[in-house]
Design brief:
The chain has 249 residues and is an alpha/beta fold. The chain contains six helices and nine strands, in the order ββββααβααβαβαββ. The chain is globular, with a radius of gyration of 21 Å.
């Protein structure tokens, strides 16, 4: 039966077939077919958009249109067939995603080892508030008013050594993982934050891995839903902890 409802839409001109969206869909509605992400059947897509934050190309959106109604029983039966005929597991994704690469950063030469610091310098934390997880910060938290936001991917906090000295001081940090956390929930949270507070600026810090690219998109979508327009400074940190890119979106 066809009904008017929300369902995902994939722009094949933007999709590069990297496959990041496939595991994000618990219903198995998205598969890579002929090098592009495609919805296998409309009845398998619940329209909640858990896959949105996984697409590094921004090729996935939610639209409202007449489509076959979501059928949870059909999904269950479909998933059983997938279990009986599992897809071959790749060591890395089709795009060669760095997030699937095992890496170590031990010095390769004696010279590199000699130039490493003997110890990390202890200092005072630049953190000025608590909590820090996006999920736990209420939109009415007093420290959000007139704040300079630092929206930080969890992994970047560990990878970037100068976080406290260069980024955290004077900013309100909000940490989360765009790959494993609830993307629609975070978009809604940012929408409420931008509606209820006069935010001064936003700095988004992600890792170089494609699955991190959803974080600034959540911020931008929340900002748009709140009717606000602020420049977002985006920093990309390499898996070895170096600052790779800085740009204003």
């Amino acid at each position: 039966m066809k009904v008017l409802r929300k369902i995902i839409e994939i722009d094949e001109t933007l999709c590069d077939g990297c496959g990041q969206c496939v595991p994000a869909c618990e219903e198995g509605a998205i598969q890579i077919i002929d090098g592009k992400a495609r919805v296998v059947a409309e009845k398998y897509c619940d329209g909640l958009g858990a896959c949105l934050g996984e697409c590094p190309q921004g090729a996935i959106s939610i639209v409202e249109r007449v489509a076959e109604d979501f059928d949870p029983e059909a999904v269950e039966a479909y998933l059983e067939t997938l279990d009986q005929h599992p897809q071959p597991v790749r060591q890395t994704l089709a795009c060669g995603c760095p997030s699937t690469h095992l890496q170590t950063f031990e010095p390769k030469t004696s010279c590199q080892a000699a130039n490493q610091p003997q110890s990390q310098t202890a200092g005072h934390s630049a953190l000025g508030h608590w909590p820090i997880q996006i999920k736990l910060i209420p939109p009415h938290a007093p420290f959000l008013q007139q704040a300079d936001l630092l929206v930080l991917a969890d992994c970047a906090a560990v990878a970037y050594a100068a976080l406290h000295q260069e980024l955290l001081k004077g900013r309100v940090v909000m940490m989360g993982c765009p790959k494993f956390d609830d993307v629609p929930e975070y978009v809604e949270k940012f929408t409420e934050i931008f509606r209820k507070n006069d935010i001064n600026s936003v700095t988004a810090v992600t890792m170089e891995v494609p699955c991190c690219s959803g974080l600034p998109m959540m911020v931008k979508n929340g900002m748009a839903a709140a009717g606000k327009k602020l420049p977002v400074t985006m920093l990309v940190i390499g898996t070895n902890g170096t600052l790779m890119k800085k740009e204003v979106l």
